[in-house]
Specification:
Blueprint: E1 28-33, H1 39-55, E2 58-63, H2 68-79, E3 85-89, H3 96-105, E4 110-113, E5 124-128, H4 130-147, E6 154-159, H5 165-180, E7 184-190, H6 195-209, E8 215-218, H7 221-233, E9 241-246, H8 249-256, E10 262-265, H9 268-283, E11 297-300, E12 303-305, E13 311-312
Parallel strand pairs: 1-2, 1-3, 3-4, 4-5, 5-11, 6-7, 6-8, 8-9, 9-10
Antiparallel strand pairs: 10-12, 12-13
Helix pairs in contact: 1-9, 2-3, 4-5, 6-7
């Protein structure tokens, strides 16, 4: 799939809510998003809106706002409005079994994007190759250590919650590369996918290893931004390398300011677009091509944004 450099982060304002009855030929999809305020998920949402507008598809949108209850209730509300398909980036993948059962009772196709579905019966899952991204981050970490002449052989990881199994593969890939190169993962702290907890995790890491640490890898950019702030506060900016994951605009800014040294970019806008394309195909009885047919998974490639803010596509 063709990659495009961060132009996906645009703000769209043309969501098409159902205000009048639809005709028989009109298609309506439900779109439920993890939290639209987060830049990564906002980019997915923009892709959903853009492709739906292009195809003449109506969208009923719902923001889960970091709440499992809101996620389930919002989907129930959309199902009651007779949507033709459901696209969802779930805040809580563990709750997807409940949602999938409700949708199947109405014969509504389900496309999941990014966060996971915990074994629920769905029609398609769109996800970045997180393990490969972790390997890429590890290889880049080694090159940073070399180019910055860092002598420490210690690295740390700030992790997302356990329920995000696919995102956790990033740390697995990173660990494999650095340990094979003779480095030691001296700390693996939970950052709960947000900047505040990423900051707290980094403060804890610095209290134990601040004088002997080469790199910290955060499994998403929000946690990386928190880690970078903690590192800046103790005067070690540019001495401890910070690598994130997602290439959110705030992370790109931090890289250009020298607080972060890199991030692994996903393609969220295109992921949102593909979600609508797949929904349209399923509604019209067309077949979908999968990278893993048994798991119904479709993978997006990732790429590096380096310490100069340049994309390696």
């Amino acid at each position: 799939m063709k990659k495009r450099w961060l132009s996906e982060y645009i703000h769209c304002s043309f969501i098409k809510y159902l205000e009048t009855p639809t005709t028989e030929n009109e298609i309506t999809i439900g779109w439920s998003v993890y939290y639209s305020v987060y830049e990564f998920f906002n980019a997915i949402q923009n892709g959903v809106f853009a492709k739906a507008d292009e195809l003449g598809i109506n969208v009923i949108a719902h923001d889960q706002k970091l709440s499992t209850t809101e996620m389930i209730n919002g989907v129930i509300n959309m199902l009651e409005q007779d949507i033709d398909a459901l696209i969802i980036a779930p805040y809580n993948p563990d709750a997807m079994i409940i949602i999938a059962d409700l949708a199947r009772d109405k014969n509504i196709p389900i496309i999941v994007i990014d966060t996971g579905y915990d074994g629920a019966i769905i029609d398609a899952f769109i996800v970045s190759d997180s393990y490969a991204g972790g390997i890429l981050a590890g290889e880049y970490a080694l090159s940073l250590v070399d180019s910055h002449q860092i002598t420490s052989k210690n690295v740390a990881i700030i992790k997302v919650e356990e329920k995000y199994k696919y995102a956790r593969l990033r740390g697995d890939g990173f660990t494999r590369v650095v340990e094979d190169a003779g480095f030691t993962v001296v700390a693996s702290e939970l950052g709960n996918s947000n900047e505040f907890d990423g900051y707290t995790a980094m403060v804890n890491i610095l209290s134990n290893y601040g004088d002997d640490l080469a790199v910290v890898f955060a499994e998403n950019d929000r946690m990386a931004l928190g880690a970078a702030r903690a590192i800046d506060e103790v005067g070690k900016k540019g001495e401890i390398m910070v690598i994130g994951f997602d290439a959110e605009p705030a992370a790109i800014t931090a890289i250009k300011e020298g607080s972060m040294q890199g991030t692994i970019a996903q393609q969220p806008f295109q992921m949102g677009e593909l979600g609508v394309e797949l929904a349209d195909k399923l509604i019209n009885g067309e077949k979908i091509t999968f990278d893993d047919r048994l798991k119904r998974e479709i993978y997006f490639e990732v790429y590096l944004v380096d310490e100069f803010g340049e994309a390696h596509i």
